[in-house]
Amino acid sequence: MSWRKLVVVALLALTVAGVKSRSAAAESRVSIGVTETMETFNPYGDSVSLLYGIWCQVMGCLGTYDFNKAEYVGMLAEKWEVKDPNNWIFHLRKDIKWHDGSPFTADDVVHSFNRARNDPQSKQTQNIAPIASASAIDKYTVRFTTKQPTAPLPEYIFDRLIITNHALYEKYGADTADRKYPIGAGPYKFKELIPGQRFVIAKNPDYPGMKKMTQAPDEIVYRVMREDEQRVTALLNGEIQIAQFIPPHLKQRVESDPNAKATTVDAVEIMFLAMQPKPPFDKKEVRQAVCHAIDRDRIIKTLLQGLATRLDGPIGPGQYGYDANLKPKYDYNPEKSKKLLAQAGFPNGVDVELQTPVGRYTLDKQINEAITQMLNGAGFRAKLATPEWATLWSNVQAGKVPFYYMGRGSIVDPSVALSQYFETGGSPRIGYSNPKLDNLLATERQTFEPAKRKKVLSEAMSVITDDAPACFMWRHKMIYGMAKQIDYKPTPSGRIFGEDIRVLK
Amino acid sequence: MLLLITLLVFVLLHAAPGDPAAMLLGQENTAADLAEARRRWGLDQPILVQYLKFVRTAATGDLGKSFRFSAPVKEVIKERLPATVELAFFSIVIAILLAIPLGVWAGSRPNSWLDNLGTSFGLFGISMPNFWLGIMLILILAGTFHVLPSGGRSTYGVAGPAQTGFYFLDSLLQGNWKAFNDAFLHVLMPALALGANMVGILMRVTRSSVLEAASEEYVVTARAKGLDNRSVLWRHVFTNALIPIVTVVGLELGTLLSGSIIVETVFAWPGVGSLLITGVTSRDYPLVTGVVLMYTVAFVAINLVIDGLYAAIDPRIRY
To answer: In this prediction, what percent of chain B has a pLDDT beyond 90?
Structure first.
């Protein structure tokens, strides 16, 4: 065979093999292109949203937030009660077993709490920060004792405190138990983890209710695909059935494919401009001038192509304690900004430097270029700085950045985030202090009656919005691409649960 | 030299702003969580103490534990190295198969249309940033023609259990041709993107070496003896043009390793290059130091092999 013939044959073989691989997707196997990388077998060794979701399905979690019902629902916990302000009692389900058939008990929950706190590789200590101790009352009842009254405790631990098997840990030790015996109690079983490549889980028919979920995929393959183009191409190529976080400019490409569709959901991540109370932002008028200077609607309509929802306060619809009537609201009014600056003693404008990450959030650089222009049109002399993410994020956490664009994700109940960013001593990220707000936040944490708590939360958020240590911008709409035969409503938290996915025949 | 490299990496890493604890603990972290993580990872100690500790353990072959991966650095690199080696191997094979025939043909017919075509092709390879070429390949071969997978190293469920970590070797050992084919389809695009630059350089070097060798007196003698063109070209000209070609292959191997950092990210290729990116972005000091150390050792080893090859190619060279 001449070399020419060889090349032709090779190309033909390649094409056939390529097409074959395209149509080889198993009927009830769903591959999902995800942006987070998965690197460790240790369920406590990472703290990214996606992995909390996966480990919750495999190992198990006490509960999660149901965005459809707008309430916390149990997973391994059947119900819970606040015995007294410092003691929470969780009643565990009795029909759950570990995947090896051994019983799941309160002892496993206590062990998991201790491991999240003491494992040398744990990156999840923040999830149990308010808890002083955990103890088993009986085989199926656990008590969490908090350091202070903590009404938002479910926000800390639900779908974040991963429950692992105590007996396996004792028998094999952490490393071997994690790598060789990843036996969980969740609705899906661990099948394969290749760090940096994929995480595969398979349906656990023995999990209560799972047999009825015939349309839930038998297998889910989470594939690491950090590049946007690659995720979209893989979706249109039939290699994956769901593509996470598609940027707005690629949405049209997905929608124009006859075999794919795109769907959006408001993220729980709030985007804001933070201002440390140091000159010139020590003056409330300057901070409010920033909020009036930015035409959020125009940015959403043009740059973000409508794929964001404006925030008129720290949180938006669907998040716990949202109040549509929260005041004040900041309209786009550059003249008012100039007046406020003059009132603050800056009639001729003031120099500010805005810092933003690049590529971390949707169109962050472009958005902040527009914001800088708008600030300059409203009496500021604004410059934009774009440090590398690791530098910016470390500096923000050390309280070294006076004015920055940032997102805060994982907000279902805003209590933790509000305390972290705005309570005195919460963190140096803004370094804001307001005794009235401190009092309100302390009160809401001690208020266990939901209606009363929401009222106090609303009051606290009104104080923050008025005093403006941050201007709240929007919540991005997360775009998911998916194959036509998939029925899936993404969660605002970014967790992807197999039970929520339906494979249409 | 290795000691110097580790010192340099250590100093540069610590001089760069960014805190591993802040990067890895999630946004809900508190000051107490950060302090505790720094203590656990030994980051609360003076940099000199940290460095001396690293050197002491590294001398015993222990590169420390990765902050991000919660596993020994040596193990993490060992898991990822086969992917990078496989990718580099196929890039070199593609580069050699394309560049050397093209270069020899172009050099043997200077200023012909074949020479011009080959030179333009070489220029294209040199000028093309490999990440851009990678994205174009994904869009065209995977997106438009659907002939190749868009990324990754294998299709789930095709390969058998990993034995060596080298997917081609594993599939051969298991006699699994489907897995072999799958691995081949996955490596093609990243290898092309990574090797394109090398094709250009190697093609041009081959061309000029062949041109130079073709004007030597022994070539005239060979022709005078009545040898046909093909024998003159491949047995006399090409053999004598090999030394600069091998030198460039050696040098380019180094570039190939650094190029893999970008290409691996574009193609979601789980090798040492993407590992380094993960390490740098999360300020995983032990991991970055370990990977750079591995790159250094690889550079030295490649140069040694190339020096050895000189002697094999040219009998006049003896060490």
So the answer is: 41
Helix, strand, coil % over all residues of chain B, rounded to 5: 75, 0, 25
Same-domain status, B187 and B115: yes
* d(C-alpha A270, C-alpha A84), whole Å: 32
Q: Is residue B42 domain-shared with residue B83, that is, in the same domain?
A: no
Q: Which of residues 20-39 of A touch B (CB under 8 A)?
A: 21-22, 24, 26, 29, 31, 37, 39
Q: Check whether residue B170 and residue B281 sit in a common domain.
A: yes
Quote the strand ranges of A334-426, DSSP E: 350-355, 380-385, 403-408
Same domain, B308 and B193: yes
Query: pLDDT digits over A79-138, tens only?
Result: 999 999 999 999 999 999 999 999 999 999 999 999 999 998 899 999 999 999 999 999
Query: Is B150 in CB contact (< 8 Å) with chain A?
Result: yes
Q: Could B270 and A196 be called an inter-chain contact, meaning their C-beta atoms sit closer than 8 Å?
A: yes
**Binary contact (A17, B185; C-beta < 8 A):** yes
pLDDT digits 0-9 by tens, B109-160: 888 888 888 888 888 888 889 889 999 999 999 999 999 999 999 999 898 8
Q: Are residues B218 and B298 in the same domain?
A: yes
Name which of B27, B79, B157 is nearest A195 (Cβ-Cβ): B79
B15 lies in which domain range? 2-58
d(C-alpha B234, C-alpha A448), whole Å? 86
Cβ pair A48:B26 closer than 8 A: yes
pLDDT, greater one: A347 or B241? A347
Q: What is the largest CA-CA distance in chain B?
A: 85
**A11: pLDDT strictly greater than 50:** no
Q: What is the pLDDT of residue A505?
A: 76
Chain B residue numbers with beta carbons less than 8 Å from the beta carbon of A237 are 142-143, 146, 149-150
How many domains is chain B partitioned into structurally?
2
* Interface contact flag, B278 A196, Cβ < 8 Å: yes
Residue type, A310: R
**CB B274 to CB A196 under 8 A?**
yes
Helical pair B130-137 and B177-214, crossing angle rounded to 10 deg = 130
Tell me, yes or no, if B37 comes closer than 8 A to chain A by beta carbon.
yes
Whether B104 and B52 map to the same domain: the answer is no
Question: Which tokens is A258 given?
Answer: 């006859």
Residues B134 and B9 grouped into a single domain: no
Let me know whether B52 and B85 are in one domain.
no
Determine, yes or no, domain membership for B67: no
* Pick from A43, A39, A44, A41: nearest CA to A118: A44
Across chain A, what does the average pLDDT equal?
A: 93
Q: Is B49 exposed, middle or buried (0-12, 13-18, 19+ CB in 10 A)?
A: exposed
For residue A197, the chain B residues in CB contact (below 8 A) are 152-153, 268, 270
